Amino acid sequence: MWILFAFGSALFAGITSILAKCGIRKTDSTAATAIRTIVVLAFSWLMVFVAGSQNLVSAIEGKTLLFLILSGLATGASWLCYFKALQLGNINKVVPIDKSSTILTILLAFLFLHESVSLPKAAGVVVIAVGTFLMIEKKDVERKETAGNRWLLYAVGSAVFASLTSILGKAGISGVESNLGTAIRTGVVLVMAWVMVFATGKQHMIREIPKKELGFICLSGIATGASWLCYYRALQDGPASVVVPIDKLSILVTVAFSYFVFHEKLNRRSGLGLTLIVTGTLLMLL
Asked: What's the half-sphere exposure (Cβ side, CA atoms, 13 Å) at 128?
């Protein structure tokens, strides 16, 4: 069942990127992140009560709670970087870099969770790395220090924090029901997101958000909540080094929707890169 949950996570994650992009055309990404986190938190706790696991809060050990909090902080940092990158850059460039967190996640899972790395997994890491490089234009790499390419730095930051999220999340939900664990860490993300809103003086922007974009932001929050619930249920039962690559197949959903919604097309180089990323991901499932 954990494989089905992993694929469900990929589907909803792919939809999340498109909905979020629609919601931050005029809206500040930090303010949007804070609002959508409220939706995710409400969705998460709803699932906690549906599953009847609300009474298990007092049974959570201190060490487990610490990892959940750290995972939430890493998630918050990843979200802030990711949606800033989405706001500044092309979605077909941002998403592949974010998904490259698979590579770092596998290395961290090997070092800290002692998960095995087979030959197919190692080959998959190499293929994904090459595919990600191909999906980034050469000029984007050469100009990454310029203002016009700040999205690249934010996208890389998103990938790094996302990999830390997976490892810390895996450690944090080993002794707690997955829905409850997701709800607790989402609360941490909510606090972090709103601290960033007030720290950057963007709280006044909340009232200026267009209703249409607010709707997309809320829908992206619902999609994120569904993705998270599937993702951490899969992580609870399956190895992180396999669950994470499946989740990253959401790039196929994102690229397909970006073509129809934003009319963003892949050139031959980017198409080859996408093929390699998918191939590498499938190799890691062997």
From this structure: 30
